Amino acid sequence: MIERSVVVRVHDGLHARPATQFVKLAKSFSCEVEIRCNGRGASATSAVKLMLLGVKENDEATLRAEGEDAADAVSALATFLQTPDAGDIDLTATGKPAAPAVTPACASPDRGVPASEGTAIGPAFAFFPAALDIQPCTVPPEEREAERRRYRQALAGTVQSFRDAKARPGLKRDDAAIIDALVEVAEDAEFIGSVESGIAAGQDAASAVSEAGRTIAASFEALADPYLRARAEDIRSVTRAITLTLLGRRDMTLADMPRGSVIVADEIAALDLAKATLADIGGIVCRKGAATSHVAIMARAHGIPAVLGFSADEARLKAVRTIALDGSTGAVALDPDAAEAERFRGAIAREAAERTALEAYRTVEPTTRDGRRIEIAANLGSLAEIEAAQKAGAMGVGLFRTEFLFMERRTLPGEDEQAETYTTLAQAFAPHPVVIRTLDIGGDKPVAGIDFEHEDNPFLGWRGVRMCLERPDVFKPQLRALLRASIVGNVKILLPMIADVGEVRAVRALLDECRAELDAGGQAHGAFELGVMIETPAAVFVAAEIAREVDFFSVGTNDLTQYVMAADRLNPRVAKLNRTEHPAVLAAIRMAAGAAREAGIWIGVCGEAAARPDLIPFFVENGVTELSMSAASIPRAKKCVTEI
Fold first, then answer.
1. Integer CA distances (angstroms), 230 to 81, 215, 297, 631, in order
2. 596 φ, ψ (degrees, to nearest 5)
């Protein structure tokens, strides 16, 4: 928890305009922020609640933030509150108001969604492909079959262009997988059927493709889940590519972008990025997009700083000559002055110095001063993150979140596809262990192919192993895929949301069934370890009994903290309670660790707290032998272990 009190200097206090700007700034951070004033509190992300606080000029306000970027958020928001003209409207040449000067990295007013960490500054490369000028016309009945064939030829040509892009040098394996996903979209039966229905009704092919793409993209954008919403970007990309082929036009390309340039765009498709020399890109700033988009995934995989969802006017972006950005906070400076540019360059130098200082720990297998070896592993959500984890020195994978394999698509993945993914992951880190968590989804993060009824509190509902045990048609293909991947020799299966030893036994029974089915089909499978997430209070209280049934524990500090403290980790009003360092949470971890020690099994920690230097000594003291975290935190955690 980061807390700071400041005297509000904003002219006339947080009335409508500054409240709106304050909320916009708060939303650019991933942490939860609360502001308190006059004995009352409100979420910093609600303009209405903020205005109802009645924060006046010269009032004292307290900011409280909890999360990975809490310090940056408090710093930026405190700066806002102490800026007298923070709420003033500054009309640009386009007549649109610009936000106040509040970003922590510089005095620039602009901020977007952090999508890929790192700081960059360089010449702007404006990437704004021309809008498609489609002139709809009615196709006579006798010509509609020819028009359908013309569409099919354009579709085949477009798919071939995707495959050509996939073959470009410099693309990673998972970049290629993203392009494969675009091919899947282009060849989707529903998409093709919609286009051909339009042509059969008399539409020209270009109009039919455009309308079908627009309709399907809108259906994705209407979904609640951000991972599924982001797939609208793929639909638009495929639609544009096919339409351009039909119109006989070539699109603007990033292939000729000068080295070190920062791309500024309305939106970049993964296919556009694949055509660029990725090592030449200094950074990316887009008006659209989210951290879950394929462009963001590719940027993170290649270490390219990126800010998406940046709401500057298009004309303003087209005119910019130099651009600086901070992909960790979302800060952007357009044509920064000398002082601003120097601040960004200073941040780049500091990042480089920190990387250099920690580089020595990349290949270290850390031991404490009294000789205890601790594994520092990576938390991953996709194969695209493997290379970054390896470069950071990950000693295996402590948590692979399989739900992302399910969430980024319109149909459930099959057993073969899952087996290939898990096998690739295991081979990449062998002989180091790879802990793969079974599907952990629920009403808060649904997937296509599984119907979830509305739940008032999905965190306490039908999620994790509870859902899986009731849907063996979904669960057993995943278990069989995991068993097949286990032939690599380092796979460990992790069960989420365990609250009763009976659930573990039920999964064991299903695994026995899956082994028998694989044997009957002549399919090879291997030995594995089975573990459970310690994230419910029930699992803590019956940890001794559960420990006799499994091979390891993995503490999920994010959920364990919210359940022990009865404090929703997404609710800023109770953020002060949602602290892993709270004595009650530490007592729960100590109890689980004791049960593991008594049973002779190992215990790891895979929540966000695993990377905290202030908590790592506590974990090690209590017998934790594995800590799993984001790749960027690995060298620092290794350094911390060697100092214990």
1. 33, 15, 11, 24
2. -65, -45
What is the torsional sign of CA 220, 222, 227, 228? negative
Token digits of residue 48: 């209405």
Give the pLDDT of residue 164.
84
Within 8 A by CB and 6+ apart from 203, the residues are: 136, 138, 139, 211
Q: Is residue 494 part of a domain?
A: yes
Q: How far is CA 56 from CA 19, 86, 270, in A?
A: 11, 13, 46
**CA trace torsion 512, 515, 521, 524 (10° rounding):** -170
Q: Which residues of the chain have pLDDT under 50?
A: 89-109, 443
Strand 90-91 relative to strand 397-401: parallel, antiparallel, unpaired? unpaired
The DSSP bridge partners found for residue 307 are 114, 285
Instruction: Give 241: exposed, middle or buried? Use CB within 10 Å, 0-12, 13-18, 19+.
Output: buried
- Give a yes or no: residue 65 inside a domain: yes
* Positions marked catalytic: 294, 606
- b vs e for 590-617, b when ≥16 Cβ sit within 10 Å of the residue's Cβ? bbbbbbbeebebbbbbbbbbbbbeebbe
If asked whether residues 331 and 425 sit together in one domain, one would say no
pLDDT at residue number 51: 61
Let me know if residue 135 belongs to a domain: no
Q: b/e for 295-314, b at 16 or more Cβ within 10 A? A: bbbbbbbbbbbbbbbbebee
Residue 112 included in any domain: no
Task: Give the angle 489-494-495 at the CA atoms, nearest 5°.
Answer: 145
For 100-151, write each residue's pLDDT tens digit: 333 333 333 478 888 888 899 999 999 998 888 788 999 999 999 999 999 9
Angle between helices 144-166 and 173-186 (to 10 degrees): 180
